[in-house]
Design brief:
- There is one protein chain.
- The protein has 383 residues and is of the alpha/beta class.
- The protein has nine helices and 16 strands.
- The protein has helices at residues 55-72, 80-95, 102-116, 126-137, 169-178, 197-208, 244-253, 283-293, 360-382, and strands at 13-17, 24-28, 52-54, 99-101, 122-124, 145-151, 154-159, 184-188, 213-219, 229-232, 255-259, 271-276, 298-301, 309-315, 322-331, 347-348.
- Strands 1, 2, 5, 9, 10, 11, 14 and 15 form an eight-stranded mixed beta sheet that branches. A six-stranded mixed beta sheet has the order 6-7-8-12-13-16, sandwiched between helices.
- α1 (55-72) packs antiparallel against α2.
- It is elongated.
């Protein structure tokens, strides 16, 4: 096994939130499986999807990918035998061909990794990598938070992302002021691909109150640690753009427990429902598990993605490529892992199985109807 290599000490990190992948994803300018990442890595000419790659280079590409995974995955023993089998199978396929079309090689690797079943483990081709880098540097055009009031006595709080600065504490504070008189609330998390730890904390504290455990996280460097590092509350948005501060805390301490702020106010008593779909993942699922396990909300809609790992992106082994791999395991307040399982709703709504399609409005309408019926039933039992 290749020795674990420590990353350079002075690295500028930019965190990407990947729609659908939904990882807490760091991109390091000078951290790429022991290779310096030049500023032209993504703008320089790269191999087209229709180009052919000769056998030797294809073999190096496959081997390099799996060596990077072996060196940086959060636990070197996690699904190790499955990864080794996929690596051997891919190298055997490469050996049978004098050359492979790049698109075909990408497909073979993607299919092999899908069989292993580790979220946020991928080889990202140049075309997609360029879009990810652009999304990391772009200024957010819209707020992550919106509120709808007076829907038959039910307020709807839409949370599109947990990635700072798409979401900010100021947005959350304004939204909570708008809904402070609402006693029935639906938090719409459909399509939320995750983002930052701090934003989960500063939203959750409004419903859980002070000093409540949200999750624990352990990196490769924290495997041997018995004592965890406690994190209180959240970082200021001004120092946490792209989750930079959150990831630095995780990297520095290796084994952490994140809690709501000790200074948080007691929550307003209300009925809360989380509307989820299969695109709610990563930090979105951290929020859902914390709210459920602390009995602060019921879940309606569809099962979440089950992609609950923090991940980093490294330079690949051909120009323009990124390697995405998980660098930390996240556990719920009770110590449960929802990786590969997802979170099933308390009340399933079939129209909510997919986000961003023609059923979106129908999903919300059904959710409001279901909440109204349940709240009426609860009131009748009390009265």
């Amino acid at each position: 096994m290749t020795a674990h290599r420590k990353p350079a000490s002075k690295i500028k990190r930019i965190v990407l939130s990947v729609l659908r992948l939904g990882a807490l994803l760091t991109f390091s300018e000078a951290r790429a499986c022991d290779q310096e990442l030049s500023s032209t890595w993504f703008s320089a000419p790269h191999i087209l999807h229709s180009d052919f790659i000769e056998r030797g280079q294809a073999s190096q590409f496959v081997s390099g990918f799996f060596e990077c995974v072996e060196d940086y995955i959060f636990d070197p023993l996690y699904k190790r035998s499955e990864l080794q089998k996929v690596r051997a199978s891919l190298l055997a396929e490469v050996a049978r061909n004098k050359a492979l079309q790049r698109e075909h090689l990408d497909t073979l690797l993607a299919r092999g990794l899908a069989r292993v079943g580790i979220s946020h483990l991928a080889s990202i081709p140049p075309e997609q990598s360029r879009r990810l880098i652009d999304s990391a540097t772009a200024q957010p055009k819209t707020s992550a938070i919106s509120v709808k009031l007076d829907l038959n006595g039910i307020a709807v709080l839409k949370v599109r992302s947990f990635l700072v600065p798409i979401i900010t504490r100021d947005q959350v504070t304004r939204a909570m002021e708008q809904i402070k008189a609402s006693r029935i609330l639906i938090i719409d998390l459909r399509g939320n691909g995750g983002g930052s730890f701090s934003s989960v904390s500063y939203l959750t504290e409004h419903f859980l109150g002070p000093n409540v455990r949200l999750f624990t996280a352990r990196t490769r460097g924290g495997l041997g640690l018995l004592d965890l590092h406690g994190v209180d509350g959240y970082a200021s948005d001004s120092v946490n753009r792209g989750s930079q501060n959150d990831l630095e805390v995780l990297s520095r301490h290796g084994f952490i427990e994140w809690r709501t702020s000790r200074m948080a106010s007691s929550p307003i008593q209300r009925s809360v429902y989380l509307l989820t779909d299969s695109a709610c993942q990563s930090s979105c699922e951290i929020f859902v598990t914390a709210m459920r396990e602390h009995k602060a909300a019921s879940i309606i809609g569809a099962k979440t993605a089950g992609n609950v790992l923090a991940a980093s992106a490294f330079r690949g082994f051909m120009p323009g490529y990124l390697i995405l791999l998980p660098i930390a395991k996240l556990l719920s307040p009770s110590g449960q892992s929802y990786e590969g399982r997802g979170i099933a709703p308390d009340f399933e709504i079939s129209e909510c199985s997919f986000s961003n399609d023609v059923k979106e409005d129908e999903c919300l309408g059904r959710a409001i109807d279901r909440v109204r019926i349940r709240e009426r039933s609860i009131a009748e039992k009390k009265g």
